Amino acid sequence: MRADAVFEGGGARGIAFVGAIQAMEEEKVEWQRIAGTSAGAVIAALLAAGYKSFEIRKLLSELDFSKLRGRTIMNRIPIIGSLLELMFNLGIYKNDYLEAWVDSLLLKKGINTFADLPAEKLKIIASDVSNGQMFILPDDLERYGMTPADLKISTAVMMSASIPFFFRPVIWKSKDRNKSYILDGGLLSNFPIWIFDTPNPQFPTFGFRFVKDKVSIDPVIPTPLHLFKNIFRTMLQAHDLRHMNEDTLERTIKIPTGDINATDFKLNKDEIDFLYHSGYSSTKKFLSGWDFEQHKANRIAKIKEDKGAR
C-alpha cells in the first residue's frame, strides 16, 4: 500500500515513531511523501533518506541522548548559568549536536540538501519568529531567495527541533543577507496532517501523534527559569489535547506516551522500550480497523456537506 506520513513534534518521545514505522513496514506500506515537526522531522528525514525501522532503532539505541542538550560552560552554574544563557543566547542549550548527528546519517545515504531528494518527498516545519510566519521547508525557500540545493536537510531538522527557551534559536541568513530567528515548528503547526491533503486522494495520509492524559507542568514556579520551562511545556503538550476533526481522527495513529515529556532526554531502557512498544501496538491496532475506501467516501461526503452548508 502506498501512503504519505506526517509525524508530530514531541522531543524525546519520537522514539515511539520507530515502533509505529515497523508496524507499517510489516503491512508493506511504501512511503511516498513524508513530513514532520521537531522530533517528527528527525524521523521524516531518516525515512526519506531510505532508512528502515530496524536501522533507525539501532541508531537511536546508540545515540547519547544527554548530548542533545548542548551544554556550555555557563550551563554548569546552577540556575544562574541557565538564566545567563537565556539572556545572552535566547536559549539554555545549543542544538548543534542534533544537526551533526542527522547530517552524518544522511551523508551515508548520499544525501545532503533537499535537492538530493525527489521533489515533494520531504517537508519539514519550522517557525520564522522574525517574520511571524510558518516556515515549510523546502517549499518556502523561494521566499528567501534560495533553492532546495541551498539548505542542508540536517539544518532544517535542527531548526524544526529548536524548542523555545530550551534550545537557542537558529540564526539564519538567507541569500539576501536578511537575518531570521528560526524556532521549533510546533509553535505554528506541531501536527501538520493537512500538508498533503487533496479533495480526492489516491492513497492515504497517515498521521502519527502522541497522547497524554494531561499537560504535565511544575505546580510551583519559584524562578523565571521554571516559568520559561512551564511555558514551552504547556505550548508543546497542549497540542496533544486539542480537538481534532473527524476526518483527521480517522487517519491518525494515537500513541500513548505515559508521563514522558518532550524534554526528557535522560530516558532509561525501560522508558525507551515502553515508547517503542507503544508506537508498535497502537499502529497495529489502528491498521486492524483501517479501510481507505471508507475513509475516502467519508471525506468526499464531508466536503459535499460543507459546500452545501455555505
Notable traits:
310 residues, Cytosolic phospholipase A2 catalytic domain, 10 strands
Could you explain the architecture of this structure?
By secondary structure, the chain is α/β, with parallel strands linked by helices. The protein has one domain: Cytosolic phospholipase A2 catalytic domain. It is 40% helix and 17% strand. The protein has ten helices and ten strands. Strands 1, 2, 4, 5, 7, 8, 9 and 10 form an eight-stranded mixed β-sheet that branches. Helix 1 links the parallel strand 1 and strand 2. Helix 2 packs antiparallel against helix 6 and helix 5 runs antiparallel to helix 6. The longest helix has 20 residues. The relative contact order is 0.18. The model has no long low-confidence stretch (mean pLDDT 83).
Topology:
Blueprint: E1 2-7, H1 15-26, E2 30-37, H2 39-48, H3 53-62, H4 80-89, E3 91-93, H5 96-107, E4 122-128, E5 133-137, H6 153-160, E6 165-167, E7 170-173, E8 179-184, E9 205-211, H7 224-241, H8 246-250, E10 252-256, H9 269-288, H10 292-309
Parallel strand pairs: 1-2, 1-9, 2-4, 3-6, 9-10
Antiparallel strand pairs: 4-5, 4-8, 7-8
Helix pairs in contact: 1-3, 1-9, 2-6, 5-6
